Amino acid sequence: MTYTSVSKKLRAILIVVMIAILGGVTAVFLTYRTPAPTHVAPMPSADTQADVSIGKIHHVSTREGVMQWSLDAKSAKVVDKGKKVILEDVEVTFFLKDGQKAYLTANEGYLRASTSDIDVTGNVVLRYQTYKLETDLLKYRHKKRVVFTQEPVLISDDLSQLMADSLVFDLDSNTTNFKGNIEGFLSGKFKL
What we know:
The chain is α+β, with helices and mostly antiparallel strands. The protein has 1 helix and 10 strands, in the order αββββββββββ.
């Protein structure tokens, strides 16, 4: 047996082992999904002991064959026996029914494996059409397809600016509801 044939066999074995490990991690992630608690848990610490750590992650969520959102992150840590995935440098693209997209970025966040709910914090920005939403904490609830925050929020475009104590953005109906103190200035054509 020559050195070349041993090298090829060894390479093939290593590829099979890597695929098996990746498949095992995916199986563990999907197997240990459980319903999320009804209360809102605090963001897990980045120092939390991870079951599995992954660099660069891409995940797509579909419902009945229709893409709901896609998520990219610089790194991910699977914790709580696969129940949560802690994310760093999060980017989420939400796909709306009318073909539009909303783009979310944040420093960190987490994904609940059982519900596909996402919470993000740190330099949170949501861009939709010409509008830019900024806040400290933003939550997405997959079952209802809503993005919301109980934190102060600033929405702006080139001509307008609006601040509110909280908001709910329904991705299916493409409507936004503001609550609490609302102030700002609007310019251009608006449909109320």
